[in-house]
Amino acid sequence: MAFLGKGKKQDMLQLAEELGINATLNMTVPSIKIAITNSEGYEEEFVKNLYETIIANGKRLEELERAEKK
């Protein structure tokens, strides 16, 4: 579960959405983590891979936006 410490709050919110968890912007990061790990059908390896993909896609988008500004 340490992998949930990576990324941004927005990444965690996107992960929760992908998993069908109702998470909102006013939730704290720890409460989002708890909601994810306590969700029905939580499988650590699947969630880890999905979260890493979300983080990688976010970084790619940030790089593209920076490149467009130049």
Overview of the structural elements:
The chain has 70 residues and is mainly alpha-helical. It is built from three helices and no strands. The radius of gyration is 13 Å and the shape is elongated. The model has no long low-confidence stretch (mean pLDDT 92).
Q: What is the CA-CA span between the terminal residues?
A: 38 Å
What is the N-to-C order of secondary-structure elements (H for helix, E for strand)?
HHH
Q: How many runs of DSSP E, i.e. beta strands?
A: 0
- Class by SSE composition: mainly alpha
Summarize the structure.
The protein is an all-alpha fold and 70 residues long.
Give the topology:
Blueprint: H1 9-18, H2 29-37, H3 44-69
Provide the descriptors you would attach to this structure in a database record.
single chain; 70 residues; mainly alpha; 3 helices
